[in-house]
Each structure stands twice: as structure tokens, then as C-alpha cells.
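Input (structure):
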């Protein structure tokens, strides 16, 4: 029996910059939103708060749910490594009570090499996953257009 993993991620925009987790794998540098897997017994909000403390070293205020995205690994570019992986990702608009408090968290993902603010107008030139949401960033922020994006990467 295979399980579906639930996850929560934080979309944080400040001064026209997006807060990202900088990652490296054998293909090079890429960026993702902070957050990760939900643990049994915690709400999505609690899981997101914990994951952000672990990855960016500071507390976040979790706001509205922006969109839900599925990732079914066998359908995308990493199918060889992710063929048995299925995740439902819930992305929340978040803010930072202490924007200067970002630093090394207590527990990084294996491929995490840092935290980086990416100017929104430079996002199109970076390898950011999921790629599909890049089109939803504007000068004014972020608008996904739909609450459910489907199985996308």
C-alpha cells in the first residue's frame, strides 16, 4: 500500500521579493517554497510553523490558503526517483513577524544549502519548482487564479 503525503508551504513576499529555500542536487541549483510534510497529529498550520522554524530559523504567521497542488512523481521530470511519490501540497500566504530573524534553522532538508530572497522580476530566470506557479507572480504579489492547480510541477 502506498501513501499520499500531505504538506504545507509558505508563500512569503516582502518588498517585491519571494522567500525561497535554495537547494542543490546533481542537476544544479533550484529553489522551492519553505515548508514540508505534515506529521500525524498536527494541523497543516502547525506543520508549516514547525517546518519554517526548521528551515528558515524564524516564526511565520500563517495566513490564507492560496492553492492546493498535487505532485504525482511518475508524471513529471523526476519520475525515475519519484515514481512512487504522491504529495498533496497546501500553500498558504504567510508573513514574518521578525523579517530580520531569518537564519540557520534547526533542521534542513538534505538538499538545502541556504535561504534566498528572489526579486519577483528575476523569478522567471531561476529554476524554481513548481515551475507552473511562476506565471502567477506579478508586481503586486501573487494570484494563482484557481484554488486547485492539479498535478503540476
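Output (sequence):
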Amino acid at each position: 500500500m502506498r501513501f499520499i503525503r500531505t504538506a504545507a508551504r509558505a508563500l512569503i513576499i516582502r518588498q517585491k521579493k519571494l522567500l525561497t529555500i535554495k537547494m542543490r542536487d546533481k542537476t544544479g541549483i533550484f529553489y522551492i517554497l519553505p515548508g514540508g510534510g505534515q506529521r500525524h497529529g498536527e494541523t497543516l498550520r502547525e506543520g508549516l510553523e514547525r517546518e519554517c522554524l526548521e528551515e528558515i530559523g524564524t516564526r511565520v504567521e500563517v495566513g490564507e490558503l492560496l492553492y492546493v497542488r498535487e505532485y504525482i512523481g511518475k508524471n513529471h521530470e523526476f519520475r525515475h526517483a519519484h515514481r512512487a511519490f504522491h504529495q498533496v501540497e497546501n500553500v498558504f500566504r504567510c508573513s514574518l513577524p521578525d523579517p530580520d530573524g531569518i537564519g540557520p534553522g534547526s533542521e534542513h532538508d538534505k538538499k538545502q544549502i541556504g535561504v534566498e530572497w528572489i526579486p519577483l522580476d528575476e523569478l522567471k530566470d531561476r529554476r524554481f519548482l513548481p515551475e507552473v506557479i511562476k506565471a502567477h507572480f506579478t508586481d503586486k504579489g501573487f494570484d494563482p487564479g484557481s484554488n486547485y492547480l492539479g498535478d503540476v510541477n
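Notes: The first strand starts at residue 5 and ends at 11. Residues 5-146 form a domain with the Nucleoside Triphosphate Pyrophosphohydrolase fold (CATH 3.90.79.10).
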